[in-house]
Amino acid sequence: MSFSFEVEARDGAARAGRLRTPHGEVATPVFMPVGTRASVKALSAADLRAANASIILGNSYHLYLRPGADVVRQAGGLAAFNAWRRPTLTDSGGFQVVSLSALCEIDDDGVTFRSHLDGSPHRFTPESVVRLGRDLGPDIMMPLDVPPVPDRGAAETERANRLTLEWARRAVAELARTEGTSSTGRPQALFGIAQGGFTAAARRDSAAALVDLDLPGYAAGGLSIGEEKELTREMLQVTLDSLPAGKPRYLMGVGTPEDIVDGIGRGVDMFDCVLPTRNARNGQALTSRGPLNLRGERFARDFGPLDPDCGCEACREYSRAYVRHLVKTGEMLGGRLLSLHNVTFYLDLVARLREAIVRGTFESMRANVLSKLGENSR
Amino acid sequence: MSFSFEVEARDGAARAGRLRTPHGEVATPVFMPVGTRASVKALSAADLRAANASIILGNSYHLYLRPGADVVRQAGGLAAFNAWRRPTLTDSGGFQVVSLSALCEIDDDGVTFRSHLDGSPHRFTPESVVRLGRDLGPDIMMPLDVPPVPDRGAAETERANRLTLEWARRAVAELARTEGTSSTGRPQALFGIAQGGFTAAARRDSAAALVDLDLPGYAAGGLSIGEEKELTREMLQVTLDSLPAGKPRYLMGVGTPEDIVDGIGRGVDMFDCVLPTRNARNGQALTSRGPLNLRGERFARDFGPLDPDCGCEACREYSRAYVRHLVKTGEMLGGRLLSLHNVTFYLDLVARLREAIVRGTFESMRANVLSKLGENSR
To answer: Distance, in angstroms, between A42 CA and closest chain B CA?
Structure first.
């Protein structure tokens, strides 16, 4: 089975869709838990299935370094290697090259960098990243792109847009050249990543040029990197307005529950973020009534569930007092239970919003969800 | 339901029994996973049930410090607090007081120590430890005992034996005085701990004196603390020979798979050890063919299961190559999968030996098990 996307229902700008991939179907909007190094931190494949995850991410940069593309290829691809067995998406690695590696140098042909692990020299090109995607075997791969360095003006944004487009074209060509070489033996889709920094015109230009390539899906990249939330949302809207209605739209690396509600309202179909698992490891439960810091003394004798609205194993079986004890004593089970809950909460939230879109009640659901999310801070 | 023990089958000195506790039945011989701070490290209650654990340990010293006896009491006891809900045993805390705390001073009445966490002063007496057991609510509690300081001669051993016996008598009296005050509302059993250092006569004296108290079970304490394995086994045998056949016999803090096979052959009914979970966190799989260090390069492309003879989730779902990747990259799932496997391996090993005892084939099973355990080192 190959790749397809259809919009099944609309409510305002929000849409409910269905993405078909060779590893299974994904109902959209969808939140994709992040399995940076082929593991959604602290969670097993069974946990992710119990949480009703439908697609998870892997990070090309990290997997390239460890265990190495050849090991994942030999395993039969990422979804076989980590026993997930369902749809996967890999990012381009470009973001990690810029943010993690030492001595990163971008030229017109590609990017040279040193590993953050051992300083060893490496090079990614648009073509090598597609071949890496062939080895890793995700259903959806992202091309190597170039976000503009912030605050370097219009020339930098123009250069980044130009390279992002050229590299997307080269990735498309390499994808065609390497057809049939996926480690999974199944077809793979290549999305485009629209950049453009924080200028509306450059955002429009980047998206429009990529749309000409007629890719099976598009992402908004380079957002939520420290800028004001209003600016994020303005730039997101400009990008979304420039993308075709019939293709999936992916907002990369976003975000809080509120950000996801906002994005769905604008017609975003796919999200990924490390926030639920990262915050879990810091002792934070993300709940329908807002975040709870389980380190707080007030939970020491709170024998209620993390989130009374949640049916995950952590909320069904364990109390806030016990999870607090685990967090305070540094027991691994604490981060695990909070990760399971937080990921379940994100997935349930998006599933409920999808259902509201189908029923045409998205606006009232959004208002209810946002009001409740603010409860703990009122 | 109260506490009882019966031996159902014997094969040589080995025996298969059944321990009835207010939280459920325990088929013996049994391995008890250690949940030091109310969590068997990295494992959930569901994991432990899937591994067919029947009774788990909690550590009095650690739980007394965090979250505190009152929190566990308010939760309804240890088995409610950690959602295990089945039989539990708590140790006396004496071993941790001596090995972990600062400035531990033993007088005839009790032990004064400083917390290893914050240096705060605390005192345990035989009575306070029983009351702590009432708060923690285990089915079986161990009394505060006094292992002799090694290499201090006969007078020290005599003093330790005398205090261990006196304190056991005081614990029995306090147990009677506090009847009906368990946090679980259910009866609790108090075992005896036979000490005696590494002198056969002192071992016999300690056991015999405790047996006069007619306790519902007896442990061999003060073994496997660094002495030669031959000496451990000799002293264990002396202790076992001095204990009544109709009561459960518990070898505390032991040991390797080989030690457990040996102990079962001598008629030990209960074992606990942190080895399977501790070694898991260090990247070691304990298998039917001996230990495997998953950090080894030779596992990088080994797509077989951790242990082909094991049916646990880790072995069913994941490869050695993937677990190695998790261990090498420090992913929490690595320690979790290895903990699940190692605990399952211990529990399965003991269950298989129990079945052999029932069938009268213990000797051939032991020979097979030991031969196979040596395979990886041959």
So the answer is: 5
B19: left (phi over 0), alpha (psi -120 to 50) or beta: beta
From residue A73, alpha-carbon distances to A1, A39, B368 in Å are 20, 16, 38
Element (H, E) at B35: strand B30-35
pLDDT cut 90: percent of chain A above it: 94
Which strands sit side by side in the sheet containing A121-124, from one edge to the other?
A102-106, A111-114, A121-124
Instruction: Choose among B32, B14, B45: nearest CA to B347.
Output: B32
Residues of A in contact with B65 (CB under 8 A): none
For position B1, what pLDDT does the model report? 53
Element (H, E) at A270: strand A270-272
- A39 lies within 8 A of chain B by CB: yes
Beta pairing partners, A190: A141
| Helices (H), ranges, chain B | 45-50, 60-65, 69-75, 78-81, 94-99, 126-136, 153-177, 200-211, 229-241, 257-266, 275-281, 313-317, 320-329, 332-359, 362-373
Predicted confidence (pLDDT) per residue in B63-99, tens digit = 999 999 999 999 999 999 999 999 999 998 888 887 8
Residue type, B275: L
Report d(CA B117, CA A293) in Å as an integer: 22
Q: How far is A169 from chain B (nearest CA, A)?
A: 34
B331 to chain A, any CB pair closer than 8 A? The answer is: yes
Q: Amino acid identity of B199? A: T
HSE (CB half, 13 Å, CA atoms) of B153? 1
Domains of chain A in sequence order: 4-273 (3.20.20.105), 280-377 (no CATH)
Q: For residue B103, what pLDDT band results from cuts at 50, 70 and 90?
A: confident
Chain A, nearest residue to B302 by Cα: A75
Tokens at residue A274, please?
Answer: 């490390």
Q: Which residues, in sequence order, are CB contacts of B308 under 8 Å at separation 6+?
A: B315
Of chain A residues 278-317, which have a CB less than 8 A from chain B? Answer: 300-301, 303, 313, 317
Report whether A238 contacts A249 (CB < 8 A). Answer: no
Rounded to an integer, what distance in angstroms lies between the CA atom of residue B9 and that of residue B360? Answer: 8
Q: Which residues pair with B287 in a beta bridge?
A: B290
Best residue in B40, B81, B332, B339 for a mutation probing chain A (most A CBs within 10 Å): B332
- Among B56, B70, B327, B329, the strongest candidate for a mutation testing the A interface, having the largest count of A CBs within 10 A, is B329
Distance, in Å, from the CA atom of A248 to the CA atom of A27, rounded to the nearest integer, reads 11
Choose, from B262, B272, B307, B348, the residue flagged as catalytic: B272
Q: What is the pLDDT of residues B208-219, one digit of tens each?
A: 999 999 999 999
Contact B333 A39 (CB under 8 A): yes
DSSP-derived letter for residue A144 is: P
* Beta carbons of B7 and B250 less than 8 angstroms apart: no
Q: Cα separation of B305 and B310, whole Å?
A: 9
Read out DSSP for A222-243?
S-SSSS-HHHHHHHHHHHHHTS
pLDDT digits (tens, 9 = 90+) for A16-31: 999 999 999 999 999 9
Q: Which of A41, A317, A332 sits opposite B42 (nearest CB)?
A: A332
- The answer to whether the Cβ–Cβ distance between B333 and A41 falls below 8 Å is yes
Residue A343 φ/ψ, nearest 5 degrees: -65, -45
pTM assigned to the model: 0.98
ipTM for this model: 0.98
Q: Report the b/e string of A246-256 with b at 16+ CB within 10 A.
A: ebbbbbbbbbb
Residues in chain A: 378
Interface of B with A in 202-241 (CB under 8 A): none
Q: Looking at the annotation, which residues of A are catalytic?
A: 91, 272
